[in-house]
Amino acid sequence: MATKTIFEKSIKTRKGYTLPKCEIDNNISEIFPNDILRKDPPRVPEVSELDTVRHYIEISDKNHFIEKGFYPLGSCTMKYNPKINDIVNVITGFTDIHPMQPEDTIQGALQVMYELQQDLAEISGMSAVSLQPVAGAHGEFTGVNIIYNYHKNKGQHRTKIIMPDSSHGTNPATSALHGMEVIEIKSNEDGKVDTEVLKDVLSDDVAGFMLTNPNTLGVFETNIQEIAKLVHSVGGLMYMDGANLNAMLGYIRPGDMGFDIVHFNLHKTFSTPHGGGGPGGGGIGVSEKLVDYLPVPVVKKKNDVYYLDYDAKYSIGKVHSYFGNFLVMLRAYIYLKMLGDKGLKRVAENAVINSNYLMAKLLSEYPVPYQKNIMHEFVACGKKFKEYGVRTLDIAKRLLDYGFHAPTIYFPLIVHEALMIEPTETESKETLDTFAEVMLKIAQEAKENPELLKEAPQNTPATRLDETNAIRNLDIKYNFEA
Amino acid sequence: MPFISNTDEQRKQMLEEIGVASFADLLKGIPDELLIKHPLKLDEPLSEFEITKKVQELAAQNINTSELVSFLGAGIYDHFIPAAVNYVIGRPEFYSAYTPYQAEVSQGTLQFIYEYQTLICELTGMYASNASMYDGATACAESLILALRHNKNKKIIISSLIHPHYKQVIETYIKPLDPEIVYIPQKNGRIDMEKLMQEMTDDVSAVLIPSPNFLGVIENLEALEPLIHENKKALFIVSTDPLSLLLFNPPGKYNVDIVVGEGQVLGNMQNLGGPLLGFFAVNQKLIRKMPGRIVGATVDTNGQKGYVLTLQAREQHIRRGKATSNICTNESLCSLAATVYMVLMGKQGLREVADQSTIKAHYLHDKICQINGFQAANTAPFFKEFAVKTPIPPSEIISKMKHKGYFAGVDISQYGYKNQLLIAVTEKRTKQELDAFVNELEKLVEEV
Questions:
Q1: pLDDT at B448 (0 to 100)
Q2: Which of A482, B70, B299, B355 stands the most exposed, by the fewest C-beta atoms within 10 Å?
Q3: Where are the alpha helices (DSSP H) in A131-211?
Q4: Cα gap B265→B171, rounded to integer Å
Q5: d(C-alpha B448, C-alpha B446), whole Å
Q6: Cβ contact A307:A105 at 8 Å
Q7: Which residue segments constitute the domains of chain B, with CATH numbers given?
Q8: Residue B383: which residues within 8 A CB-CB, separation 6 or more?
Q9: Which of B55, B109, B172 sits opposite A334 (nearest CB)?
Q10: ipTM beyond cut 0.95
Q11: What are phi and psi for residue A448, nearest 5 degrees?
Q12: Average pLDDT of each block of 10 consecutive residues along chain A (482 residues)?
């Protein structure tokens, strides 16, 4: 059932708040000239607290979420979010502190940031970390901005960024924001970077190379050292999209592979909740030669006192109003301190085992074109179902009927009818077995009763939604006049 | 091991089914020298009880704005947040859902975003709003990128009364696009109109005016608009505090092209300055140039109303290098807090918050300016925040007042406003607190 919007539930003069009385006798109209004062108040609904809470609980019930069920979204690392992380939401010593407070009144907060910087540097094998970016793409922006400024500072005008054709959309979008020309190179038959093709496009106007490792096919780039060597040989920098860091925790480090910059998705790898699309955390780590380019401030420590250091020689400036998403950092901090080295290794092991196990279970019906060196996720191809008139989209929608979220679909672009599946380490064998059973059942349904898939989902709060209509008859806010 | 379900026995079974003898076999092919042979230098893992204790100890080392009476602002404000806001955003259905890519099982998220967009349009008087940006600073930066790409002009004009951190973020963001950036100086707390007029050449891409500006002053948008739009290509961009829009005419009324700003004041905690909430609203012409997610209403196969992400051809996952922005994850949960806050406070409550903050700020301003040596920094109309010139260095005032129980404000000497203290007042401050604060300031001056 569709739920009315909150605007349709408004009853004139109904209230959902209380405020203390203003003890100062004055009037807005006494303070300002009449012509700048607003005469037509915004049409904010007038509802009670119960109306409000009930409305949002009613619509919340229409969401899938990690506590409810499996979320095999490739590239998104939808692991379980430990509940301990959320104690931070109710500790006023964290929620009620202002970024302009004197440093001696936020020592606890600065310590958290300092230790998280140190721990992420150790985990990634980088020299220094900035926690300022608040999302993966924001980290990418910061990283590419550093690449841009690094070359500029050396008096070099480098205009090209190279990336494989399997890269995340944010990679070319970020490069374009820096006026860079994007060169996408074709992956080889193993789904990896083709070093021969790479050699062909390398030149002294290449600013950098952006790569996800394991890449978006879930495949580890086994030639990574050679790639780094080649890119470095022409003076380019190596950027690692850290979306898939989960697969390597405690085992392999971006710094050791030759990357100069890496971003961390705290809301993926480090278990902080996604909030339906943020807030996230997208801090970056950099190699020694780029430390002076980090955004300011960075948290430092001297004589057991933590302080904000604004003194970076070539700093790119700032990428956020203040220090980044502190509350997200805090959750990641708790998670890291509970896991330690052994726990992180266990995360990577189970993420990789779960992925390989699920792939083995599905292969009979869902071929995986790139299977060599599969790590934490894999990309299946749904092309064969086309003969029954069934597309990957239909398989995804049918999964919703069985109470699962769908995998990431139609990405990466180099696999036709792609189904990108990332189980994460927190899911149990039983969940994976059930999911595999359902996937195999859907494959049968596709062959025997394709309409079932094409008409899916039916057991969900809404059936398939008309996206074309949404664009043609654009309706992006409530129409009060209707 | 915490948060992992599979037992060792299950792992063994799974490895068998995969067809390998051990986990190490799954890493075959990865160059051996890349595999770390030593444990990472991290602390020994803590139990849930131990980390709880540790985190509480860390929190206790901070002094929070419930312990000291706070006059801190500069973009982040201590407004009251009703309990129901955090109750709703804490619901796991919202809290731990992913981006609403599968609309049929994300109607909750999609509907609240639609409602949020509506509310932002109502406040700003604009045609369309996106689902959120990282914060006010990046929203400003992206609005200028939109302009540079939209009209291909190269000159960006910004009021020098912009938040100094926003200025830094903007420069980091737009410099790679090689614009000419001109800052217009202030005249008595407002942008100098004559200087602005002189800079309004044909090659202007956009003019960015914060109102309230960094000093809390409301700009004269009515007078600015014709001046800026005399150049047909130039976009007029206003950055604002959404609560101010309850009192003052919204930018939409003045034909502004883009309205951006920091939405933390709408039901979000201070959180040491993050997470925050950037908002972004445009006129009808620019809707397809907007960065970020947009939710639209449509129907499902049963003809029932529902919501989807729409106009996605603007976004990175479709357009890649040609996208309007690289933004992907944004601040969705903060926009939910804003939505619930606005709905709960309602038409009257929001107005009352704005009224009380303003009346109290003006009361305090007048009282402080009566203290010997204190002086208004300007005489322009202000909202809930103002700058005063101080007889002793602001840093000294801040440090001494801390011991008396106050966060006295922000020392803006560091940003070039010599000997000025920036003081913000919200509806949470009582008359008694304001009077006591003035009293202590008086004593402080007498002591010197």
A1: 78
A2: A482
A3: 136-153, 170-177, 195-201
A4: 25
A5: 5
A6: no
A7: 69-80+346-447 (3.90.1150.10), 83-340 (3.40.640.10)
A8: B212, B216, B217, B218, B241, B244, B247, B248, B357, B358, B361
A9: B55
A10: yes
A11: -95, -30
A12: 95 96 95 96 98 98 97 96 92 97 98 98 98 98 98 96 96 95 96 97 98 97 98 98 96 98 97 96 98 98 97 96 98 98 97 98 98 97 97 98 97 96 98 98 98 97 97 97 88
How many cross-chain Cβ pairs, A to B, lie less than 8 Å apart? Answer: 649
SS3 assignment, position A56: helix
User: Do the Cβ atoms of A13 and A46 come closer than 8 Å?
Assistant: yes
Tally of CB atoms within 10 A around A69: 14
Secondary structure (H, E, C), B28-74: CCCCHHHCCCCCCCCCCCCCHHHHHHHHHHHHHCECCCCCCEECCCC
Q: What is the pLDDT of residues B290-309, one digit of tens each?
A: 999 999 999 999 999 999 99
Name the residue with tokens 């604002």.
Answer: B240
What is the rounded distance in angstroms from the CA atom of residue A293 to the CA atom of residue A282? 17
- Residues in chain B closer than 8 A to A108 (CB atoms): 57-62
Q: In chain A, what are the domain boundaries?
A: 6-60, 84-339, 347-468
Question: Helix, strand or coil for residue B416?
Answer: coil
Cis peptide preceding B212, ω within 30 of 0: yes
**And the tokens for B212?**
């309230």
- A347-468 has which fold? Aspartate Aminotransferase, domain 1 (3.90.1150)
Q: Kindly state the helix (H) or strand (E) to which residue B432 belongs, with its residue range.
A: helix B431-447
Nearest-CA neighbor of B262 among B132, B371, B173, B379? B132
Contact B304, B107 (CB under 8 A): no
Identity at B302, one-letter amino acid code: N
Q: What is the pTM of this model?
A: 0.98
- What CATH number belongs to A84-339? 3.40.640.10
Contacts of residue B269 in chain A, CB cutoff 8 Å?
95-96, 327
Q: How far is A311 from chain B (nearest CA, A)?
A: 15
d(CA A99, CA B86): 21
DSSP for A60-114, please give it: HTTB--TTTS---BTTT------GGGGGGGG-HHHHT--TTS-GGGBHHHHHHHH
CA distance A434 to chain B (A): 14
DSSP character string of A168-183: -THHHHHHHHTTPEEE
Amino acid B250 reads: P
Q: Is residue A89 within 8 Å of A96, Cβ to Cβ?
A: no
Neighbouring C-alpha atoms within 13 Å toward the C-beta of B136: 29
